[in-house]
Amino acid sequence: MDLKKLIGGRQFWSLIAVLLILFGVLLIVGHPKEEASPAPLPPPEDDVKVLVLNYHMVNSMFISLAIEPGDFDWQMKYLVDHGYHSISPDELYDFLAGKGTLPDRPVLITFDDGYEDNYTNAYPILKKYNLKATIFVVTGFLSKRKGYLTWDQLREMEQNGITIESHTVTHAPLPELSDDRIREELVESKRQAEAELGHPIEFIAYPTGVHDLHIVGIAQEAGYKGGFTVKYGNVDRSSNVYAMERVPVFRTAATNVDFVDRLRYTSNITQFGWTRN
Ligand SMILES: [Zn+2]
Question: Which PANTHER family does this one have (predicted)?
Fold first, then answer.
């Protein structure tokens, strides 16, 4: 088929002219910065992700909050075998404040509440693998309630890599309390632990993780440097130091498989913003 014959000579040349103009416009619009050199790459972001594990009990009660001693041993060995290095809350704080560096694959191992099995079951395993850990204690329960740690046990553990911090006096849910009661829970637990242990208590784990900006303000006034939640995720430079993320470890039908999955996928989940608000 001859296009020139079909649409007539004049129209044919008009069509060619229109196409040439369009082609020229596309060239200009499509490559506006062809002459400019490519922009330099931005400096690499500090993407250190700190894993903060959250345990409660280490025993064979077969409840979700209780990791069996054999499983706990397996998990601690897994951390060591995979190049994780345990750190203290102060090391994490200094890193976030820009004052210190962290080892490769940093992990902060934490326990909430202050159960006696942290001493009888977890502590020997932590010592075996030379791992540091942190226990957030409910000060009003210590040396009083059955099943909870004593101050003597805490003092002994502090000689061997365990850090003690506050989990309030009574474990009451803070958002439901009056300001005076919130202040009492935060100030009195700090004062009590400082008197018993002889060093500053500077971190709080909010009971059941619940907190809000108002509570954070009171914690700050009370002299805490940072706080931990149960918001699922890794801590990094964008974390709020008064609302640091943790990865809870539960007993499940496949406790250790789930543990490894959590280590492997948490940083991706955090990165995509699925767990932050
Ligand atoms: Zn608790």
Answer: POLY-BETA-1,6-N-ACETYL-D-GLUCOSAMINE N-DEACETYLASE (PTHR34216:SF3), PTHR34216
Task: Give, as residue ranges, everything with CB less than 5 Å from ion ligand 1.
Answer: 112-113
pLDDT at position 276: 42
101 Cα–ligand 1 center, Å: 30
Measure 171 CA to ligand 1 centroid, in angstroms: 6
Residues 130 and 1 in one domain: no
More confident residue, 268 or 270: 268
Domain that holds residue 11: 1-27
Residue 136 has pLDDT above 90, yes or no: yes
Q: What is the pLDDT of residues 167-178, one digit of tens each?
A: 999 999 999 999
Residues 112 and 158 in one domain: yes
Q: Do residues 164 and 135 lie in contact, with contact meaning Cβ atoms separated by under 8 Å? A: yes
Q: Ligand 1 mean position to 277 CA, how many Å?
A: 22
Written as one letter, the residue type at 33 is K
